[in-house]
Amino acid sequence: MKFGKEFAAQMVPEWEGAYMDYNLLKTRLKEILRFRQRTRPPTATAATRGGLKRKLTLYRAFSGLTQRNHTSYNPMSKPNDDEDDDDINQRGEGEGSQSYQTTFLMASDEGGEYELVYFRRLDDEFNKVNRFYKCKVEEVLKEADSLTKQMDALIAFRIKVENPTGWSHHDRKAQMTRLASDVAASAAALSATTPSEARASSKDFQPINLMEAIEEGSMSHEQSSSDGSSSHDEDDAEKEEEKTKNQSNNNNGNVVRLSPLEVLDHVKMNNTSETPRSTIKGFLKVPRHTELKFTRENLRKVEERLKRAFVEFYQKLRLLKSYSFLNTLAFSKIMKKYDKITSRSASAAYMRMVDNSYLGSSDDVTRLMERVEATFIKHFSNANRSKGMSILRPKAKRERHRTTFTMGFFSGCAAAQELTKQCLSVCSFFGFIVLHIVMYAANIYFWRRYRVNYSFIFGFKPGTELGYRQVLLVAFGIAVLALCSVLSNLDMEMDPVTKDYQAFTEVIPLGLLILLLVMLFLPFNILYRSSRFFLLTCIFHCIAAPLYKVTLPDFFLGDQLTSQVQAIRSLEFYVCYYGWGDFRRRENTCTSSGLFNTFNFIVAVIPFVARLLQCLRRLFEEKDPMQGLNGLKYFVTIVAVTMRTAYVLDKGFTWLVLAWVFSAIAAIGSTYWDLVFDWGLLQRHSKNWWLRDKLLVPSKRVYYLAMVLNVLLRFAWLQTVLGYNLVPLHKQTTVAIVASLEIIRRGIWNFFRLENEHLNNVGKYRAFKSVPLPFNYDEDGDKDE
Predict the structure, then answer these.
(1) How far apart are CA 120 and CA 634, in angstroms?
(2) How many Cβ atoms are within 10 Å of 75's Cβ, its own excluded?
(3) Helix axis angle, 231-251 to 385-392, nearest 10°
(4) What would the mean pLDDT of 181-207 be, rounded to a whole number?
(5) List of E strands, 633-679
(6) Any bridge partners for residue 269, and if so which?
């Protein structure tokens, strides 16, 4: 793979605009190359194209099988900097900032203007990268200070929980003496294993306060001593932490820190959990900060929150380190290309400037990573380094061949079955679910292909997101189970032995539904438990929409449910058919029941009501008027469904007109919202005609086709609302086809919706999730101190 493609593949998607524009600089180099090829003498050009004349080399003197280089070499000589073709000047543009500018000394040469343009663009790219990196490092340094305060509060909290009455003077003196000897022994062992050069350089650092080390050791001594098997790992963690702590003390040697228990006088507990109770308290303006309660349950919650915060912070550091490495490598590659094209030796001088810049010389990120690793291993993984690093650096999921094979086998089994009228009536619910899962698998495939960071947008835990093969495996597995239930039903109908057990054969679809529900709620770590629980959590948040903070996965799932109205009605039919005992008589009396028809209306509007409540919750929290307009859109849809139901119950002209009017308004408003707000298209002044400036799919035709399909399929859904059969098919067949078209429309909508969300993240360089911290510091109290 060429470096340009590898460079693009390893970028942080949300930071794509902050990386060096490698392709643009390659274009500038190609301009230089084309100019040199045009102005090169014909003989030289021919010699270059033809390579060395082989005939001439036959008459050269033989140099021997063991050729020696007779050029004298002086190891003490240094390269002459005057031979470089460019001179690097640094110009400060403001306090704390630094801008780099390259002075090209050969601009008077023929074609020098092309090289001058190249170096100007190169400087612009380097200054952009350097400023962005410095800005992000400053952000993580501030966050590191915040996490340091959180750790101080956590350690003090542990002391209060483990020793609520405090230590006696005798116990504390004995423990302090023992810990002092442990620290001294660790320091001696560390100095014994440290090279002499490192020991000499360590004299520049201020020595660590022994009492501070003892205090910190006393806080976790009981916990560490409870696990004797991990004592060796704990010693390594202690040494690494002491080493990094010495470095931090070099920079902050004069910072006054409170004693451990005094920290608790300046903090309160943050109530970060989103529950119906917290929602009601927020509505009533009840403060979210509560007094500290020193219980083991609260300690567990605090440790869990800080653990997540450290994991997320470590991922930021890893991305920053990758950003620095990739850009430095890119500058090296592009300068080597320049040297090769121009036959100059400018790369050495330019890379010295890169190495001396903040991008190449700052080790803040590396030292922070070492400190975070040591802290996390000691405090959150019981001094087990392998366990701690597996959490901080989760391994990427490997694609397994058995998954692909099983998925292909199930898809073949599902495609080999014939669809019958009985299958259509019994399997319609499972068919809608399978089709939606297949569309989601297609979404994942294209999201990955066009580098849409869907796992970050949805908030999946790293390493647990499913690929499109796993999703297709689930879809075709459900399809095979559904078709097997139909075949078993038909076989038992035709078999003389089981023909008399008609009631039992009718229960087979219900048994399949119960089996799928059991698999969905299964608590064991099988069948993609993390993804199943994530789905159940989002479903519960949709059901209790106004009582939970609305996140993107919640309202995204709510939109999916609005396209599954027919599947929800099928569930209602299951309840009626099996709950009222119609399966024993093998007759369907549900549609003739007024109660069933009433619930049929209620069930149809449940997804839209959930989305309306989500919009109102966001309007209340975010004060965004656009959420009010979005809620109005769902309200009009609810009214349209209500008018349609009234027309079905009473075939009056007034109800027909109202159904037409509100359904048309709902369809037009929803289509406009899809194209403009959800997809970000129809921008008049965009460089892409009536699209948007940034497009991930190279072909513009895809966007125009998607807009046309969205309109057509949206009005196919309108046909279902008005109840007209446009094709000479059975009513249930028509309903199933139109419902399937709505699911396909939703699948198309999903891709462009997340593409637009991803581009919004790219525009804001938003590559991290904010993790709420457990403690809130009283800053005024700190200032008074």
Answers:
(1) 53
(2) 4
(3) 60
(4) 44
(5) none
(6) 290, 775
Round the average pLDDT of the chain to a whole number and report it: 79
**Distance (Å) of CA 98 to CA 45, 248, 321, 647:** 43, 25, 21, 72
Q: What is the pLDDT of residue 92?
A: 44
Going through 259-308 in order, the beta strands assigned E by DSSP cover 267-270, 289-290
* d(C-alpha 29, C-alpha 111), whole Å: 12
Cα atoms in the Cβ-side hemisphere of radius 13 Å centred on 500: 1
Helices (H), 252-284: 276-283
Cβ proximity of 657 and 644 under 8 Å: no
Mean pLDDT over residues 9-37, rounded? 92
Closest-CA residue to 310 (of 369, 235, 386, 230): 369
Write the CB contacts of 599 (distance below 8 Å, at least 6 apart in sequence). Answer: 572
Q: Are 706 and 749 in contact (CB under 8 A)?
A: no
Taking the C-alpha atoms of 131, 137, 142 and 148 in order, what is their torsion angle to the nearest 10 degrees?
-170
133-159 pLDDT tens trace: 999 999 999 999 999 999 998 988 888
Contact 89, 101 (CB under 8 A): yes
> Does 645 score more than 80 pLDDT?
no
104's enclosing H/E stretch is: strand 97-104
Length of the chain, please? 785
Residues with Cβ within 8 Å of 84's Cβ and at least 6 positions away in sequence, in order, are 345, 346, 348, 349
| Gap between the Cα atoms of 385 and 373, Å rounded | 9
Centre a 10 Å sphere on the Cβ of residue 729 and count the other Cβ atoms it contains: 12
Name the strand (E) or helix (H) holding 89: strand 86-94
Q: pLDDT tens for residues 462-483?
A: 888 999 999 999 999 999 998 8
Tell me the two tokens of residue 660: 């037409």
Paired residues of 777 in beta bridges: 267
Mean pLDDT of 642-646: 81
Per mean pLDDT, which range of 182-191, 601-610, 675-684 is the poorest?
Answer: 182-191
pLDDT score recorded for residue 483: 86
Tokens matching residue 245: 């702590």
- Rounded to the nearest angstrom, the gap between the alpha carbon of residue 234 and the centroid of all alpha carbons in its chain is 33
**Is the Cβ–Cβ distance between 632 and 612 less than 8 Å?**
no
- Range name among 47-61, 501-515, 603-617 with the lowest pLDDT average: 47-61
Using an 8 Å Cβ cutoff, are 739 and 429 in contact? no
Q: Say how far apart CA 737 and CA 746 lie, in whole Å.
A: 14
Q: Give the highest mean pLDDT range of 535-544, 641-650, 771-780.
A: 535-544
Report which of 102, 108, 92, 96 is spatially closest to residue 124, judged by C-alpha positions.
Answer: 102
Cβ neighbour number for residue 607 with a 10 Å cutoff: 23
User: Alpha-carbon torsion 193, 196, 199, 201, what sign?
Assistant: negative
pLDDT value of residue 143: 94
Task: Assess contact for 213 and 247: CB atoms under 8 A.
Answer: no
Of 280 and 220, more confident? 280
Q: What is the C-alpha separation between 120 and 317, in angstroms, rounded?
A: 30
Tell me the pLDDT tens digit for each residue of 565-581: 989 988 888 888 888 88
